[in-house]
Write a structure and sequence with these properties.
Elements: H1 3-19, H2 24-38, H3 45-50, H4 61-73, H5 77-85, H6 88-93, H7 101-111, H8 116-125, H9 136-151, E1 156-157, H10 158-173, E2 178-183, H11 185-188, E3 193-194, E4 197-203, H12 207-214, E5 220-227, E6 230-235, E7 240-246, H13 251-259, H14 262-274, E8 278-280, E9 283-285, E10 291-292, H15 297-303, H16 319-324, E11 339-343, H17 354-363, E12 368-374, H18 386-405, E13 411-419, H19 430-433, E14 438-442, H20 451-462, E15 469-470, H21 488-498, E16 501-505, H22 515-524, E17 528-531, H23 542-552, H24 566-587
Parallel strand pairs: 4-7, 11-12, 12-13, 13-14, 14-15, 15-16, 16-17
Antiparallel strand pairs: 1-3, 2-4, 5-6, 6-7, 8-9, 9-10
Length: 594
């Protein structure tokens, strides 16, 4: 590792320490160390530790400890802990110009805000200026910072982009001349992160005239480009909107084109040409030049002898060839899910009781809840001791007994999110792991391993017959942390071979595995578990986004573990243990009678 990269890690640590209100001297020591190490540029860190940084009193002991960790393992346990302890939304807020860690901490502690969207709402509604040492000017600066971030073309999480798009769409739908309006582009295709808002409107009268009038709407800061019926607008809050206004008879084709992707549009256009049609703008003409009516997107695909391609599949990655053979999968739907298997409670770092989580799951129509609090090695997230596990299991038994007595068709399953330790061992010993109905194994430390080391670590964990689900397999946090190095294909293949499900962690900051890997899992016959990673009842809403990503990854209901009943999930989890017990019994030598 070079000194420049190590300095960046030290700087991140100092910022996150301030965000967590840690000791001021420690924060300053890390920031100072970052500047000292940055001055060494591209020099190898190992060499610098032997020379420039070896002199007494150059750096604090804590900073030296971080640097030694980075030099030896290419990662920092302190940085990993701070990243995991920090709500991902606060990491996003750190990207807002002029909004430092101390102010973000105050906002979070006083207003319970941890997303950019909620921060913007608080600034607009006057709640932000009511905080100590804030005021109206600070709220204005925050709004400007968010607008500048958007104006710079920064990506946002899909759920935030969708909420912004729907807000704008609702405002435009209220306009007299707008007959119909839909969100298109990457938001409609369910991409994990998005940048612009694409909208298509069917309008009354001349599309160009209506587009010009919409450009004068309140809230529009400037017209960036386009002309006629298509405009690119910048709103006061920095959001860029690409708006197409069309006649009602052109709406379906315009929506299809604006949805994209460009590769999918290109392939469909080429197919239309091969069949004697000309697809230009928002019109389709036949070989005689006559306009062909396209009332719906489905009609376009049918006309070209294609199965209808759902928006989330339109990425130009082979979907057209499959649609031509009318063999597109029947994609999983949220109603197919019967339970949620990755949920936390107040026993570790969750914000609700087990019963509150169960009631919220029931309200969503689910039939079981898998409680999977953190294991003992995960101390920063309140990992559970053996005694606390036993106490939790007794509570679950009591709750299930009450549900049964009341005739409630719902079960709470005893799970754990066990750390996969650097050596590849799953936290707790085998005898204790036998107590759980299912085990999620996740990497929470030492992200800096190289690809071979991390892959071997996870492959070894897959050998443990207690492991049911491999949790968030790449460790990524969208927009804040890159995936760690790992041979994901090899991991997915082995998981399928040994009967472990791969998680699609549906936390909007993770979406891990992503939709691309979901498709690989389906091809290899590896089960996928859509886990909400819910830390509160509201966190169960992540299921909707998880299903959207699963659909984008071509998953059918039979590919998803938690479309099965609770008994079927338990059978899946116990199958490996039974096989391991049988193998162990066969391998064990028999004693001769004496």
């Amino acid at each position: 590792m070079e000194c420049r990269a190590a300095a960046h890690a030290l700087s991140q640590i100092s910022v996150l320490m301030e965000l967590h209100d840690e000791d001021k001297f420690s924060i300053k020591a890390m920031a100072t160390a970052a500047r000292v190490v940055a001055a060494l540029g591209d020099k190898p860190l190992v060499d610098a530790l032997k020379r420039e940084l070896a002199a007494p009193d150059v750096l604090s002991a804590a900073a030296l400890g971080v640097l030694q960790d980075l030099a030896e393992t290419n990662s920092s346990g302190l940085l990993e802990r701070l990243q995991e302890e920090t709500p991902e939304g606060l990491m996003e807020m750190l990207r807002v110009p002029g909004l430092g860690p101390a102010r973000i901490r105050s906002i979070h502690d006083n207003l319970d805000i941890d997303t950019l969207q909620d921060l913007e709402a608080a600034a607009r509604e006057g709640r932000l200026e009511s905080l100590p040492k804030f005021g109206a000017k600070t709220a204005e600066k925050v709004l400007k910072g968010i607008a500048d971030l958007r104006a710079a073309g920064a990506y946002v999480l899909w759920q935030h982009g969708r909420a912004e798009a729907e807000r704008i769409a609702d405002a435009l739908r209220s306009q007299t001349d707008v007959l119909q309006l839909e969100v298109a582009g990457s938001i409609r295709r369910r991409m994990e992160i998005v940048r612009d808002v694409d909208l298509v409107a069917a309008v009354r009268g001349s599309p160009s005239v209506v587009a010009a009038s919409l450009a004068q709407m309140r809230g529009v800061r400037e017209v960036l480009g386009g002309g006629g019926r298509t405009l690119s607008l910048r709103l006061d809050d920095g959001v860029r909107v690409d708006l197409s206004c069309v006649r009602p008879e052109h709406f379906a084709l315009a929506l299809w084109r604006a949805t994209g992707s460009s590769q999918h549009v290109k392939q469909v256009t080429e197919r239309a040409t091969a069949r004697g049609y000309v697809l230009t703008g928002d019109e389709l003409r036949d070989s005689d030049g006559a306009v062909v009516a396209i009332p719906t997107e489905q009609h376009l695909y049918q006309l070209l002898d294609l199965a209808y391609v759902p928006p989330e599949l339109r990425e130009g990655t082979g979907e057209l060839e499959v649609a031509a053979s009318h063999a597109l999968p029947t994609l999983v739907e949220e109603r197919d899910l019967r339970g949620a298997l990755h949920c936390h409670s107040q026993y570790s770092d969750g914000g609700a009781t087990i019963e509150q989580m169960a009631q919220a799951a029931m309200a969503r129509g689910l039939r079981y809840l898998g409680v999977s609090d953190h294991s003992q090695s995960n101390t920063y997230a309140g990992g559970l001791s053996r005694d606390r596990i036993i106490e939790q299991h007794e509570e679950i038994d009591t709750l299930n007994a009450r549900f049964a007595a009341e005739g409630v068709d719902f079960r709470v399953l005893k799970g754990i999110e066990a750390d996969i330790l650097p050596c590849g061992r799953v936290d707790y010993d085998a005898a204790f792991l036998d107590r759980f109905d299912f085990v999620i194994g996740s990497v929470h430390t030492r992200y800096g391993m190289n690809a071979e080391q991390m892959t071997n670590r996870v492959l070894k964990a897959l050998d443990d017959p207690h492991l049911t689900i491999l949790g968030h397999p790449t460790g990524r946090l969208l927009l804040t942390r890159e995936p760690y190095a790992i041979d994901l294909d090899a991991v997915i293949e082995k998981a399928g071979a040994v009967g472990v499900a791969i998680e699609l962690n549906a936390d909007p900051h993770r979406l891990d595995i992503d939709w691309r890997a979901c498709r690989i899992a389906a091809e290899k016959g590896t089960m996928v578990s859509i886990g909400p990673d819910a830390h509160s009842p509201m966190g169960l809403e992540n299921i909707t986004l998880g299903v959207a990503q699963a659909r984008k990854g071509w998953l059918r209901a039979q590919h998803v573990l938690n479309t099965r009943t609770a008994d079927e999930v338990l059978t899946f989890a116990r199958a490996r243990r039974a096989q391991a017990d049988t193998a162990s019994s066969v391998a064990r030598p028999h004693l001769r009678a004496i």
